[in-house]
Specification:
Shape: globular
Oligomer: single chain
CATH architecture of the largest domain: 3-Layer(aba) Sandwich
Number of strands: 11
Largest sheet: 7 strands, mixed
Length: about 220
């Protein structure tokens, strides 16, 4: 499959089913709010390194988590019940995205959360679309996550922790809030053992796109 070059003068994307085997669909364009919203609502997301052109992805299969399938591990439940951490929503979005870009990850060189991405998602946050969950310990930010909330879908972007289990606690509280607000799907984007352990599973891209059409 070819990788499509996006035109600068037109806000369009090729159909997600035209992505190559790795899930790469298109290159180019920008991270403007309209383009990002068009991408996410069509099952496409940006992922690239600093100094590269914007790369747009739609992998098949797609890792998702249905809130009702979240695995409430006994150890995590005990930790939440101890109230060791304080959890807030949308209190420190810019700090969370900054930390997500700094934390070193296994088998990953550098970060895909570029300066351009931080600016773009902060704009989405100010519009009430990009959201964050923060975990605090003794007044210090020690974990959190962020993503986009569109319709009844939460598009998870990244999470971090500087203290063990702090991001898992943030995810626990995210699930609780999503369920209360009838959010029915979490797009996890990338397949990882960590997310699988929390209840995420792979579904065909075609099924994912059908769900998006229904839930957004």
């Amino acid at each position: 499959m070819p990788v499509y070059q996006l035109p600068d003068d037109e806000m369009i994307f090729p159909h997600p089913e035209l992505a190559n085997e790795e899930g790469l669909l298109a290159v180019g364009g920008d991270l403007s709010v309209p383009r990002l919203l068009l991408a996410y609502t069509n099952g496409i997301f940006p992922w690239y390194n600093e100094g590269e052109p914007v790369l747009w992805w739609s992998p098949d299969p797609r890792l998702v988590l249905f809130p009702d399938e979240f695995k409430r591990q006994k150890s995590l439940r005990l930790l939440v019940n101890k109230n060791r951490f304080q959890v807030t929503f949308d209190k420190a979005f810019e700090q969370v995205i900054e930390q997500c870009g700094k934390v070193k990850r296994k088998n990953q060189k550098g970060t895909w959360i570029t300066k351009e991405m931080k600016i773009a998602y902060t704009k989405l946050h100010k519009l009430g679309i990009a959201r964050s969950v923060e975990t605090w310990e003794n007044g210090k930010l020690v974990g959190g996550l962020y993503g986009l909330l569109i319709g009844k879908v939460f598009f998870g972007e990244s999470m971090f922790h500087t203290v063990d289990n702090a991001s898992k606690v943030a995810f626990w509280y995210l699930i609780e809030k999503l369920r209360k607000n009838d959010i029915q799907l979490i797009d996890a984007q990338q397949d990882t053992p960590h997310l699988r352990s929390l209840g995420a599973r792979l579904i065909p891209r075609k099924e994912f796109l059908t769900l998006l059409k229904k839930l957004i």
